[in-house]
Fold this sequence. Notes:
globular
Amino acid sequence: MQCPNCGGPTKWIARTRVRQIVHGKCRHIIKPYNDTIFQHSNWPIRYWLYAMLHVANSKTSIDGNFLSRQLGVREQTARGMLGRIRLHLAGIDHLSVFGKLGDTVHIRLERPRRIYMPGVKRRKTTQVLCMAVGRSVRTIVTDIARPHRLKVLVNARIHPEAKVVTDCHHTLRVVSGYRDYPRLVFDPLYFADREPGSDSITGFMNSFARGVKGQHKHLRMPGLWLFLKEYEFRFNRRHRSHETFGDMLAAFPSFSPSVRETLRAWNDDLPR
Ligand SMILES: [Zn+2]
């Protein structure tokens, strides 16, 4: 490896305990784990890889309790690790816009069950805007009380040259605000001439509901988008699921605070 400081190819010295490599010639220090999900962790990387393997191989996700027993760490630690792994998955799959020129993006508003907001008595406020192209699904968490944001989301998150279609009358009414909105085409028979199982949004929401019911019992709303990203990561690779773990380790996106905020803002449109 070339040294970014002096450009020389001299030997690098590994300081494994402090997780640094030092250039032998100019003493330039590189911290390979900085800005990755491993940055502030003292746990060995093999623990993290083991946790990631579990996340990749489970069908319905895993919870902190299970992981804490697998790794022999405290439950709080395990929960923190899972949160960071989910962030990592969100970072790998991040897009600036969904769809491309000539795509038909199918959208639908969904209301996942078993989601609650801590401290809020009013329930059923969660709303998820699902977007699908072929087998691939993306979700954005919104609030049911902010229907005016939906048009903004459709315009900002979907490629301007892509066609937007929905088969759900409720979605059409809410997104268009009961007004004329030519961007969104209403086609109630969208799936009528397609083969069974081509409705990716229903498939995704079913797999998510199964996971929430079986693994988590219920979810806190502020962290909901991270859970959705984890399910999306697996769901969008279901036709080549043996490569999921490889994809997880193929990239280590940066997680500086600004990147984290960008990720959250793309996927989660709740008011701050
Ligand atoms: Zn150097």
